[in-house]
């Protein structure tokens, strides 16, 4: 039986806010500390590299989304331009990796708001609440994302203001800020020499994933009005805002804490407001981090559901996941299945330090998108083919900087997916042959 289609209800502002909710998540509250450990003050160069790779990936994604305005993102692009296997591996990497990321976001949300004994129950409730919002329709998701994004941006503005005050000092000369002396041109050069380009590339790899949320816009391509125009514009706007926000937060954090202080911090943005003497702001920053995690969870579940829907339509995942709710026009079975898996992970596994393969999967996902964009004919191109090639090379370079355990986990996940696909194809072929021989 034919399923109802998803409804095109998202405008430019809706698409931008969903992308921002995915990008400006809990990562911005934590990513700068490990980046500083890898590169010191050189993390600013790492941020620039990550932003360039993200820009190349976003350009390829926008170009493809204008041609294929359907659910699934790089899964659909890879399948249409490169073949079934590249598309499947991109989609599988996204679904599995981002499901683990959802569990981590839920745990992060609870960690900022509750004592350890209550964190898992609260994380489970958060997943259920976010899934319920998504099931009510994509416009509800967009409205919730708007509220979350505005709140998080206000908190980050507070952090940048505090960091600038700590950096410059009370007299405006820079003599009193705790990080002012440790973040000057001379020390910056010394940090760069000390950590080298490998450290800078590692920091770029850590910071890249904070930008990866623009893919949520592409995975919702079937629900955007005037997609060939709206999707490229919304991706560019969302990424541009995210780059400016991260640059401001990174500079303020380095200025307030210095490279060593930032590297040693467990909650860097909380420490930034403390360095300014604004202890009253620390609870606000903690709540902001929790809300940001919730926003990322909201956008991620929506994106995973749409990718699972696209794969199920092609029989790459169980066909039941392709069902669309007749009233709310959402892939309700896929989203419920994703929520159930996330709840199971939250309740049983500590994922905060065990989702390295998710990073591997994200880079593979965008690698496939860039390769797909390279194959597009001149009539469909919006950006130079060289930019898509640079994005593909950048993804591979960042993969090479990942810890070996993360690479091994990513390869293992791909192997499981490949085995599942091969077995499913054999079962489906035998079933079809049996039906063909049945009188």
Automatic annotation (TrEMBL):
Transmembrane segments: 12-32, 38-58, 89-112, 118-135, 147-168, 192-214, 235-257, 287-309, 330-349, 355-374
Coiled coil residues, start to end: none
Record key words, sorted: Cell membrane, Membrane, Transmembrane, Transmembrane helix
Protein's membrane topology: Multi-pass membrane protein
GO molecular function: transmembrane transporter activity
Domain of life of the organism encoding this protein: Bacteria
Keyword Transport (UniProt): no
Gene Ontology, cellular component aspect: plasma membrane
Major place of residence: membrane
Matches recorded under Pfam families: AA_permease_2
Record localization: Cell membrane
Protein's name according to its UniProt entry: Amino acid permease
Source species taxonomy: Bacteria, Bacillati, Actinomycetota, Actinomycetes, Micrococcales
């Amino acid at each position: 039986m034919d399923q109802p289609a998803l409804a095109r209800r998202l405008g430019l502002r809706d698409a931008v806010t969903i992308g921002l909710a995915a990008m400006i998540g809990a990562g911005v509250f934590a990513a700068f500390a490990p980046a500083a450990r890898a590169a010191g003050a050189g993390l600013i160069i790492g941020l620039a590299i990550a932003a360039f790779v993200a820009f190349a990936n976003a350009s390829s994604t926008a170009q493809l989304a204008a041609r294929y305005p359907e659910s699934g993102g790089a899964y659909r692009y890879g399948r249409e331009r490169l073949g079934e296997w590249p598309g499947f591996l991109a989609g599988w990497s996204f679904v599995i990796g981002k499901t683990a990321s959802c569990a981590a976001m839920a745990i992060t949300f609870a960690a900022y708001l509750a004592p350890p004994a209550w964190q898992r129950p609260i994380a489970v409730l958060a997943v259920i609440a976010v899934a319920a919002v998504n099931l009510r329709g994509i416009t509800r998701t967009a409205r919730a994302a708007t509220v979350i994004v505005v709140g998080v941006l206000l908190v980050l503005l507070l952090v940048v203001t505090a960091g600038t005050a700590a950096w410059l000092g009370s007299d405006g000369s820079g003599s009193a800020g705790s990080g002012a002396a440790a973040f000057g041109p001379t020390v910056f050069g010394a940090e760069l020499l000390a950590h080298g380009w490998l450290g800078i590339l590692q920091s770029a790899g850590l910071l890249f994933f904070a930008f990866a949320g623009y893919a949520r816009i592409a995975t919702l391509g079937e629900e955007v009005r005037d997609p060939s125009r709206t999707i490229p514009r919304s991706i560019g706007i969302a990424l541009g805002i995210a780059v400016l926000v991260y640059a401001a937060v990174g500079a303020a954090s380095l200025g307030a804490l210095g490279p060593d202080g930032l590297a040693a911090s467990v909650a860097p943005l909380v420490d930034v407001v403390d360095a300014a003497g604004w202890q009253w702001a620390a609870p606000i920053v903690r709540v902001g981090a929790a809300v940001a995690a919730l926003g990322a969870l909201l956008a991620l579940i929506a994106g995973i559901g749409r990718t699972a829907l696209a794969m199920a339509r092609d029989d790459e995942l169980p066909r039941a996941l392709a069902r669309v709710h007749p009233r709310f026009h959402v892939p309700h079975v896929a989203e419920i299945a994703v929520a159930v898996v996330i709840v199971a992970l939250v309740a049983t596994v500590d994922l905060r330090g065990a989702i390295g393969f998710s990073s591997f999967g994200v880079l593979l996902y965008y690698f496939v998108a860039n390769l797909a964009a390279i194959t597009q004919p001149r009539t469909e191109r919006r950006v130079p083919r060289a930019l898509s090639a640079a994005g593909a090379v950048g993804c591979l370079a960042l993969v090479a900087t990942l810890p070996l355990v993360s690479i091994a986990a990513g390869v293992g996940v791909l192997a499981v997916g490949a085995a599942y696909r091969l077995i499913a194809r054999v079962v489906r072929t035998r079933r079809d042959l049996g039906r063909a021989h049945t009188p």
